[in-house]
Amino acid sequence: MKSKFKIIDKKNLYDGFFKMNEVTLKYRKYDGNWSNNIKRELFGGAQVAAVLPYDPVSKEIILIQQFRPGTISKDIDHYLDEIVAGIIDEGESPEIAAKRECLEETGCEVKKLIPIQGYFPAPGSSESFYHLFLGEVKSFKGSKIQGLENENEDIFVKCFKINEVRKKMEDGKILNGLTLIALQWFFLNFYGD
After folding, report:
1. DSSP labels for 29-54?
2. Which of 91, 125, 137, 178 has the highest Cβ tally under 10 A?
């Protein structure tokens, strides 16, 4: 198979909590010719495992909230309703990472993991790839605070009845894209009334 792109140059611009690279490349256009060189900044690619925690017995979904710096430019609540997600460690499979993250962030052990979809959340600006799963768990009463202290995590965890989560979606209260994708899949493909 012929290559559809050629990297001319790649250099690291920043290497902190996130990485930023500058890439100069050209790609094969639909007419078969090569494009002019283009230069783009790309966020380094975090490989992420994400889990929608669901209790099939109590018919509850677990959502988490934590402060998100990317929300500070908007006049909204900066603690978004989200599903579990975290970076896959070196040498770790997406499935193992999903189970680990669910336990760390909710305190709930995944009994069964069902693949939903893998996808690029922002391929125009990031090399990240997300592995999305439904995780069957046992829910709990009330709410709790979870997270790893060494990662400075302060995560509010709460179980919701399925109709409460659907109402949050209908009311435009779910603002996290990953969470929207997982919940839309859940309501379209997994859970029917």
Report:
1. -TTSPBPPPEEEEEE---EEEEEEEE
2. 137
Question: What whole-number distance in Å separates Cα of residue 153 and Cα of residue 103?
Answer: 13
**List 41, 60, 92, 151, catalytic entry:** 151
Beta-carbon contacts of residue 36 (< 8 Å; ≥ 6 apart): 26
Rg of the chain over all Cα atoms, to the nearest angstrom: 19
CA distance 91 to 38: 33
C-alpha closest to that of 106 among 114, 98, 115, 94: 98
Question: Tokens 């899949």 label which residue?
Answer: 185
Quick one: tokens of 2? 């012929």
Beta bridge mates, 10: 23
State pTM to two decimals.
Answer: 0.88
Give the orientation angle of helix 177-185 with respect to helix 162-170, to 10 degrees: 120
Q: Helix (H, G, I), strand (E, B), or coil: what is residue 50?
A: strand
The maximal CA–CA distance of the chain, rounded, in angstroms, is 61
**151 counts as catalytic:** yes
Question: Reduced to 3 states, what is the DSSP secondary structure of residue 22?
Answer: strand
